[in-house]
Amino acid sequence: MRLFHYYIKNKEGETKMLKKWIGALLAAVLLVVGMAGCGVEQDKKYAVLTDNFGEEEYAIGFRKEDVAFRNEVQNALHEMQEDGTLNTIMQKWFQQDFKKTIDKVEETATDGSWDYIKSQGKIVMGLDDAVPPMGFRDENTNEIIGVDIDLAKEVAKRLDVELELMPIDWNTKEAALNTKKIDIIWNGLTVTPERQEMMLFSASYLDNTQAIAVIEGSDIKSKEDLAGKKIGVQAGSSALESMQKDAVFASIGEGNIQEYETMLNALMDLKIGRIDAVVADETVVRYNISKQEENQKAE
């Protein structure tokens, strides 16, 4: 019932959000059925390899012309770094200290983008609401929570504007930004050369890798072992792009890549043997794994 209540309540959610919820529900059903039918034991555990498809950084995405607005947000993050707020938020979600340096922007920009945000009285933040721990829905309250949500709320508070969270189709995030449906993209957004051509970025606030997740005991020990294997990635993420740039991708084959709406769906298929590995942002995949293990212990 909560699924349909959510669809009716959210006028902006529309069909795509309903499909996402139905997809997650079906994936959970398939997991149970698959385990029962294929004899897969529920206590199988995931493992994240030390090998990966490269290091990367998370940052906030803005329209190319919105320099003044970007500067205001970055300077708010700089203040949060200086007074310890950033460290508090990172400790809450990752149990580790904030390790980046966010410089203050001294230059003055006169493009009018900050005046536009002030006139609107709010920042509309675009995100995929199924990417824990960056931005996702609390399973009990349906509220959108996460490390990026906490950061954005604090930035909006310091800039004296409201924060509106808008779940979007991650595959069309650039279009949503450039048509002003949203004002920023802030949800574990990886900085890539291709994206830098399409949007303006803040200073990075989190380091990451494109990690490889398998089932413990798998014969996959490195990315070279992925040759001919079936691999899951989240649609619209930078995982596939990172893989395509690597020399081993030719041995994997484009036809062996399976795209999923959510990381949860990909990990479920990995556990029941429909795919052999998952490639994803390390922060995202480790958090999903830890939560699945916690839930399994509680059962």
Q: What are the salient characteristics of this protein?
A:
299 residues; alpha/beta; 5-stranded mixed sheet; 3-stranded parallel sheet; 12 helices; 20% strand
Outline the structure in words.
The protein contains 12 helices and 13 strands. The longest helix has 25 residues, at 14-38. It is α/β, with parallel strands linked by helices. 43% of the residues lie in helices and 20% in strands. It has a 5-stranded mixed β-sheet with strand order 1-10-13-11-12. A 3-stranded parallel β-sheet has the order 7-3-8. It has a 3-stranded antiparallel β-sheet with strand order 4-5-6, covered by helices on one side.
Largest sheet: 5 strands, mixed
**What's the tally of helices?**
12
Structural class: alpha/beta
Strand content: 15-25%
Gyration radius over CA? 20 Å
Shape: globular
Run of helices and strands: HHEEHHHEEEEHEHEHEEEHHEHEH
Topology:
Layout: H1 2-9, H2 14-38, E1 46-58, E2 61-62, H3 67-83, H4 85-94, H5 113-120, E3 122-127, E4 130-131, E5 135-137, E6 144-145, H6 147-159, E7 162-167, H7 173-178, E8 184-185, H8 193-198, E9 200-201, E10 206-215, E11 231-234, H9 239-244, H10 249-252, E12 257-260, H11 263-271, E13 277-281, H12 282-298
Parallel strand pairs: 3-7, 3-8, 11-12, 11-13
Antiparallel strand pairs: 1-10, 2-9, 4-5, 5-6, 10-13
Helix pairs in contact: 1-2, 2-11, 3-5, 3-6
Short description:
With 299 residues, the chain is an alpha/beta fold. The chain is built from twelve helices and 13 strands.
